[in-house]
Amino acid sequence: MIADYFHSIDFAWPWLLWLLLLIPALAWWYWKTGRRKKGTMLVSTTGWNHRTRSLKVRFQHLPFILRLLSLACIILAIARPQSHFDEERVKGEGVDIILTLDVSGSMLAQDFSPNRLEAAKAVAIDFVDSRKTDRVGVVIFSGESFTMVPLTTDKNVLKAQIDGIQSGLLEDGTAIGSGLATSADRLRLSTSKSKVVILLTDGENNGGQIPPVTAKEIAKNLGIKVYTIGVGSEGYAPIPVQDGAGRVVMQREKVNIDEKLLTQIANETGGKYFRVSDNEGLKDVYKEIDELEKSTIEVSSLRQYTDRFLPLAIAALLFLALEWILRLTIFRKLP
């Protein structure tokens, strides 16, 4: 309890703590001079007086110890102990970012651990944590697209929604154009100087009502920078599928990523294309994008103090009161 009290305590006038040296000095003086000699007049031979004299002998130094404790508490109190609360204020101009995530069935391929979708979700959550002043939104797509989270600074909502993303939420397919167009629409009214889409997919465009080239032009006209990420190992990857009996079995399927299209989208919007084949590579990509899209941040710290002398003052009074009670009872001097 005492350790917890002093854990976050600062003293406004720490130089007064030098007065604590009086404590060992007074203790030395007390030991050196000894107790004043008292008369040994036998008043009674009753058992009560015998017990009283025994208590006097046993606790003869207690009043002096209580007085020293009281003095120590008073010195600590007048040194103005204070607890502090540190508040960090972050101000700056952030970036508006849409995370556009492919949730098609092929994202369950297990060439990433545990699969592509879960790996993508994990790095997306870490990325959200790293963007202190940015507004971030989430768009998912497969055969169609859907805004999972509009632009927001609420990191807890973002991470919870990303964590809840599952394959099968939308019609299956890979509508890259629809995913990009929906993301661009979410940034259409943004007043931020920097607008970014990070589009992650593992396949080729094969659905949706908006061609990828059209979506790219929309992004260009709105001044949106698009970073594209192709995920998948080279060659073939194991993908869970249902057989005729409804059982889930692993099937090896060829990895087909339209790298030409993804590179074109990135280059013409001022972004960059990345190809990754494992979890570590995916983490590195998001770290690189994080470095490329820096926000202008100003961090200021504010420390607030609260005086905490009252417990020490109360303790000093209690020690003095206890000493006074003892001197009136057990240590009372007979006339």
TrEMBL record:
> Which SMART domains does the UniProt record give?
VWA
List the keywords (alphabetical): Cell membrane, Membrane, Transmembrane, Transmembrane helix
PROSITE patterns (UniProt xref)? VWFA
- What Gene3D superfamilies is this protein classified in? von Willebrand factor, type A domain
Q: Which residues cross the membrane?
A: 12-31, 309-330
Q: Do you know which Pfam families this protein is assigned to?
A: BatA, VWA
Where in the numbering of this chain does the VWFA domain appear? Answer: 96-289
What InterPro entries does this protein map onto? Aerotolerance_reg_N, UPF0353/GerABKA_families, vWA_BatA_type, VWF_A, vWFA_dom_sf
Q: Which PANTHER family match?
A: LEUCINE ZIPPER PROTEIN 4, SPORE GERMINATION PROTEIN
Identify this protein by name.
Answer: VWA domain-containing protein
Q: Which organism is it from?
A: Flavihumibacter fluminis
